[in-house]
Amino acid sequence: MALTGIQIFKLLPKTNCKECGVPTCLAFAMNLASGKAELDACPYVSDEAREQLAEASAPPIRPVAIGKGVRKFTVGGETVQYRHEKTFYNQTALAALVTSDIAAADLEAKLKLWNAFQFERVGYNLRPELIALKDVGGDKDAFAAAAKKIAESSEFNLILMTEDADVLKAGVEACGFKRPLLYAATDANADAFGAIAKESGLPLAVKADSVEALVALTTKLTEMGLKDLVLDPGSREIKNCFQDQVVIRRAALKDLNRAAGFPTITFPCEMASNLDMETLIGSMLIAKYGGIVVFSDFQSESLFPLLVERLNIFTDPQRPMTVTEGIYEIGTPDENSPVLVTTNFALTYFIVSGEIEGSRVPSWLLIKDSEGLSVLTAWAAGKFAGDDVGTFVKKCGISDKVKHQELVIPGYAAAIAGDVEEELPGWTITVGPREAAHIPGFLKEK
Hints:
Blueprint: H1 5-11, H2 25-33, H3 47-57, E1 64-66, E2 73-75, E3 93-99, H4 104-115, E4 119-121, E5 124-126, E6 130-134, H5 140-153, E7 157-161, H6 165-175, E8 181-185, H7 190-200, E9 204-207, H8 211-223, E10 229-232, H9 238-253, E11 265-266, H10 275-287, E12 292-295, H11 300-313, E13 326-330, E14 339-343, H12 346-359, E15 363-368, H13 375-380, H14 386-396, E16 406-409, H15 417-423, E17 428-431, H16 439-445
Parallel strand pairs: 3-6, 3-12, 6-7, 7-8, 8-9, 9-10, 11-12, 14-15, 16-17
Antiparallel strand pairs: 1-2, 4-5, 13-15
């Protein structure tokens, strides 16, 4: 049972030191109880109190790490029902299904194709994470061979899907080093599957016919000492699946039910007869609130929109996407190439850089840190002021790369031109277009 704010306050040092960022220990205790603060923010809490407060400070939905290597990921760890309340932290993982009876050549071809699915979007490399290997026929050797092939010859991590404990053991022996998710413990095999998961230290999926049955099963498994669980309420009809995802999330966040406080796994591949419909269902589950979503296949035309949706949903709404401050080469600029400056809002950067690239005029693009604000917003907030821009231009090193002293500023920031000139004596400040779409014509004319 989670502790109340007053119970937490009694365990704190009560120094009111303000080092945690709030004025009193009582305020910090209330923030801790509501999930708005981390226990590590208090530098003076005792080890004894820290142990007692562990439950209160832990996320209501346990974070579960799955996989190894470049595509390892964490699901769960969420603290809010709705994204605008704070943010969502750990992205929904996307998986594709293969069966253990697949021919070796076909598996190799799929892995080669799926490994290539990587998409660049606003500076992020978007790609799926998982392959769900499903046991067919109970052939543990074939299952182990496929698991070994996937683990050793691809970047993908695995979900090992079987109802047979012997088959599961063979799969764990073949790819346990990749930290696969074991699927799934049921009421019939919970003891055997729980023992395998505990012995191997691997995360375990739990499947039941309802949320209520799921809670009873997770209680049993946690009493066995298992902590890294992933929930499957067994619903394979769209409406019921949606309802179950919401119920599980609310039970963990609103009712503080620890038995429901785990991420979920969902199966659009078992809910539709074609990939297009699976994609629609998957888009719903990325938003509400699937931890892992399993499809029958990966195809670029369905995968890319899902990855973009996931990026948008799991981007902190209170912290805009940004790019790193510095000098960016667009094309192959030389000492005579034009120099432009703008803010570090990711969308601004990619639109502006795209238009410069489309103009076929090699240019230097200076990106100034504006805390992720667009040009007009940054100027209004004082984050893109003339003196700051001038100081940045002097310090960034662009003078060592060009012979001329001409700087193009955004049209919406025309008001800063005078202040930039004062900060950069000898430089010519040119006001560029207001709209990025006009940049190609502007550069070609110059």
